[in-house]
Predict the structure.
Amino acid sequence: MANFKSPHPSLSVWSIEKSNVSQHQNRDGKGHHKNSALNNNQWFDHVRNEESTQSKTRRYRLPIYFWRIFSSKPTCLKGLLLGVLIGGLILSVIISLWLTSTDSITIWLMTGSMNTARESHTASALLNGKVLVTGGKNPGSLSSAELYDPATGNWTATGNMNMARTHHTASVLTNGNVLACGGYNVSVLSSAELYDFATETWTTTGSMNMSRGYFAASVLTNGKVLVTGGTNGIALKSAELYDPATRIWTTTENMYFARNKHAASVLSNGKVLITGGFNSIYLKNAELYDPATGTWTTTGNMSTGREEHTASVLNNGKVLVSGGYNAGVLRSAELYDPVTETWTVTGNMSTARQQHRATLLPNGKVLVSGGNTGSVYLNSAELYDPTTGRWTTTVSMNFARARHISLLVNGTVLVSGGSNGSSLSSAEMYCCS
């Protein structure tokens, strides 16, 4: 049975998949959410309901002051009041049955807006439960960072990075601190810095051996951070490792193929799968990094070359790659099997999209949100079911957005920022019971 709980006071816009009924709050043209209390259907103010714990049926009782008011009214008004009362009770029963049905309830809820509109930023889940957002652009590179508190739905500014950066990476280390490195700020950066979540301060750390943007970073099972590829004017095949114990970067073996705008996935066996990207052509090849040997091996090719796609490690260990771009925006998806090191085509998405985001849900499905078609920014979202290999549309976001962040927080998906032609500060949460 689906449990429906009233949303947190900070979550103020409802979009409910089960019906076309939605409750919306005024927003300004920039997607900022204006704080105000939710309308609680005041025509139910004089009706109280309670559930019998023994019979499991709902009973409706009227307070005695209602009968005093009722008896004092002229006969002509009594009929009207009874009609309103009966209609309200019937509607209340319908709503109660709907809320306690076995169907799942899926909604996007607006939460507090960031203090700064931004796109191409990063988001990291901290050990204290908060979410750290760093950098991005609007329109120039940003040094600011802020924290989202799921308990309150509010964003607060935290210490600025030492360097403004966009198209960078941010990795949560095993000690809970966050490593931000590379990216763009007028020129391509090699610098790196650490965020201490306990003191909310940034300190510089060793710089990478190569400046790079549009690269990928992966936290390995040994605690080190592997960065791969990217571009500093030309596509890179180099890779290097950051050691949190020494705060030093060391080079490791180069990839077989130079690439940027690719994806990196840490597999259950500890190896890192690199997929796609761009290097004068859209790449379909994939390769594996083995931390135990520090070496690369090629693995099967995807059926379609692609950049700016997503790659999600499923609960069964396989990797789902979806969308992206290859002389046109793609709706195709495919699966990598680490056991056989082979690729197979799976169901296509309902909508072609690039610069979208994908998040693995607690139920094992993958939520894909937003992106663009090359000409249209998308607010649509869809779900991939690994058991069927099919995609189904789900309720759309309140705002179209691409180059946003998407992160699982306490069983819900937090989406913030991005662009729909201009940078956004709005944030919303995907909730499914």
